[in-house]
Amino acid sequence: MASHSSSNAGATVAPPRAPDLSTDELQRYSRHLTLPEFGREGQEKLKAASVLLVGAGGLGSPAATYLAAAGVGKIGLVDFDRVEASNLQRQILYSTSDVGRPKLEAARERLTDLNPHVEIETHDVRLTSDNALDIIDPYDVVADGTDNFPTRYLVNDACVMTGTPNVYASIFRFEGQVSVFATEDGPCYRCLYEEPPPPGLVPSCAEGGVLGILPGFIGTLQATEVIKLITGIGNPLIGRLLMVDALEMNFRTLNVQKNDDCPVCSDNPTQTELIDYEAFCGIPSSDSSQNGTDDVSQIPEISVQDLKQRRDDGDAPFLLDVRKPHEADIADIGADQLIPLDELEDRLDEMDAEPGSEVVVHCRSGGRSAKATEFLRKKGFDAKNLAGGTLAWSDEVDDSVAKY
Question: For the domain that residue 274 is a member of, what is the CATH number?
């Protein structure tokens, strides 16, 4: 188990005794060594330290790149995705030739080429309540670059329970946030956001978009906080949330107080084990059978192959697109009508299908369309969700449909 210690001012982790730097390393890190506040001691602390990056995407790409270049001794990466063309606009670890490859395979190759003195450890798994403690515990610092609420709460709770500082960052459209959680005396993510937002309230980056350069900017700030924690220099963002608006180029810092009643990090926590974070965030299980009821997890679905076959047979149901118009401009599978999910209730009388008729609803991946399907069924429509949305259509029916 790694030894973790920190305090609010000049917080630092406690890696093992610093190893000596080789001649090549002295030359490679010379610009660090000439910094009076950093010097050889700081570089040796980096070499002795280990950092786990949860997510090797938009935030993980710049964070991993700069941490490897800086000379962090061991970098762990948790991810299970493959590189897609839509990643290349912001995930700078990858190139066009990497499309289709496992992200961890491409990331290891790139980071090792950047700095062969750094050990790259990969975890090709989805982080869950069953494996999070075992994966996180050996590392000195965690950098959370995830893009969903269940994993953010999971990472936070696991960091608190293992005593591992959590350098948090998030991005959306043109805005980003950075902070340091789960230190000995500082707040945790739950002190700031005690409860997750309702499912679907906050769109994903795939749905809402993100300025390509923003994760590079925010991920670099995240890597900076990691280095400050390891070396003990500067004033880390413990008890502070840095908020960045790239459009206005505006920076704000909010103070975050430790919650004395926090269920996880207080002196008398009420939650001492990891939980079901999908359920905690109100996300229904995907394992439920679809039996025709109006439960969100059990609404009727139709596969993209079945829809394609019915079109070919001249028996196509009415197809409703509940994405935003700009999404339809990117990928179009021939919907009969487009009404965004957040406008559907107010514009129901505009639908070109009558109650009782068969309607298939689609979005990008099936989440928004599931909500719309549930709503339409309550209004008397024979509605079905198109499983997998335009992504599945591109994968299984027509690869000329763009994936985004």
Answer: 3.40.50.720
**CB atoms inside a 10 Å sphere around CB 400:** 7
Q: Which residues of 329-360 are buried (b: 16+ CB within 10 A; e: fewer)?
A: eebebebeebbbbeebeeeeeebebeeeeebb
What SS3 class is residue 260? coil
Tally of domains within the chain = 2
Query: Coil, strand or helix: which one is 1?
Result: coil
Which of 262, 265, 281, 363 is catalytic? The answer is 363
Q: How far apart are CA 394 and CA 321, in angstroms?
A: 15
| 71 Rama sector, left if φ>0, alpha if ψ -120 to 50, beta otherwise | left
Structure tokens at 302: 């139709």
Choosing from 159, 191, 205, 281, which is the catalytic residue? 205
Cα separation of 240 and 58, whole Å?
A: 23
Residue 188 a catalytic site member: no
pLDDT of residue 282 exceeding 70: yes
Q: Does residue 363 have an active-site annotation?
A: yes
Alpha-carbon torsion (256, 262, 266, 271), positive or negative: negative
Give pTM, 2 decimals.
0.76
In a domain, 252, yes or no: yes
Average pLDDT, the chain: 91
Residue 105: both structure tokens together:
């395979």
Residue 18 in any domain: the answer is no
CA angle, corner 120, sides to 147 and 5, nearest 5? 70
Q: CA dist 95 to 76, 86, 87, 107, Å? A: 21, 11, 9, 10
Main-chain dihedrals φ then ψ at residue 175, nearest 5 degrees: -125, 150
| Of the candidate ranges 1-15, 98-112, 220-234, 289-303, the one whose mean pLDDT is the lowest | 1-15
Answer for the pair 98, 122: CB distance below 8 angstroms, yes or no. Answer: no
301 shares a domain with 276: no
Among residues 226, 212, 207, 225, which one has the least CA distance to residue 325?
Answer: 207
Residues 6+ apart with CB under 8 A from 98: 83, 106
Q: Which residues contact 207 (CB under 8 A, 6 or more apart)?
A: 323, 324, 327, 364, 368
